[in-house]
Specification:
The protein is an alpha+beta fold and 270 residues long. The protein has eleven helices and four strands, in the order αβαβααβαβαααααα. It has two domains: 168 residues, no CATH class; 88 residues, Alpha-Beta Plaits. Strands 2-3-1-4 form a four-stranded antiparallel β-sheet.
């Protein structure tokens, strides 16, 4: 019964790490999708006295993806009723050109400054509106959320790894007598510790299986996807092949690494 509890403790510790890893992966995917949405909705408005081609805009900065000319009708729609048609045509020719600039990715504040300065240097440009205050607030909140999630994932990983190490030491103490007898017959330390590696591998496999079942169930239930749909984000919550393989590699790698640390530490004590 005691041995079973030790097994269960290690399995749950590995499941916790795998669960936090997948949650972090889901969060990263959601943030990337949100950044993509922000990129599509974000644009810079440029006012110029001269016509500027899309190719010219693209040469100003690598992040500039495309440009589009804003029709003067949008500018004049509020005053059409107060002016004659002839005067409106004359005003259209006198108005500067308005452009909306789209970027290839959601920029950082430094990139916004670089793009704005590059456009302002072009002859004929009189004004560049990058909506900097609103952009910087959104970007900083996004960056803060990323950092918080990363810190939590690292904290869970470290604490749970220490718990796994403690459980493996308990295993070693439980098999000390058997290992000592094998040592008397000249068995190498790796052979004496074979049971430790076997248990580590078995628990890693069981933990991966449990984690995969949990996330497959979450995908089938669909509550995470429905919550993300509310804010217009569509991502892959769990890919059984790719994410499952990543979980298996992490579980096996971490378990074998900690088992190796236990074995090397025991060797030093001898």
């Amino acid at each position: 019964m005691k041995s079973f509890k030790n097994h269960l403790s290690l399995i749950m510790a590995i499941v916790t790490i795998l669960f936090s890893l997948q949650i972090f992966t889901i969060t990263e995917r959601a943030i990337d999708a949100y950044e993509s949405n922000l990129k599509e909705n974000y644009s810079i408005v440029v006012v110029s006295e001269k016509k500027i081609s899309q190719k010219t805009f693209q040469q100003m900065h690598p992040l500039i993806k495309k440009s589009e000319l804003i029709s003067a009708d949008h500018v004049l729609k509020n005053i059409k009723l107060q002016m004659k048609q002839t005067n409106i045509k004359l005003l259209k020719t006198a108005l500067p050109k308005f452009y909306r600039i789209h970027l290839s990715k959601f920029p950082s504040p430094d990139q916004i400054d670089a793009i704005t300065n590059a456009i302002k240097e072009h002859v004929g440009v009189t004004r560049v509106e990058s909506f900097e205050n609103s952009h910087n607030t959104t970007y900083k909140l996004l960056l803060l959320f990323k950092q918080v999630v990363l810190v939590l994932a690292i904290f869970i990983f470290v604490v749970t790894s220490l718990l796994m190490l403690k459980e493996m030491r308990i295993w070693q103490f439980q098999h000390t007598e058997r290992m000592s007898i094998m040592a008397l017959f000249g068995a190498p330390v790796w052979l004496r510790s074979a049971v430790l590696f076997r248990l580590a591998v078995i628990d890693a496999l069981l933990a991966t299986l449990i984690a995969c079942i949990v996330f497959v169930g979450m995908v089938n239930y669909g509550w995470i996807e429905s919550e993300l749909d509310v804010i217009g984000i569509h991502i892959t919550i769990f890919d059984l092949f790719n994410d499952g393989l990543s979980m298996l590699m992490l579980a096996l790698g971490l378990s074998l690494f900690l088992a190796t640390m236990i074995v090397l530490g025991h060797k030093e004590e001898v």
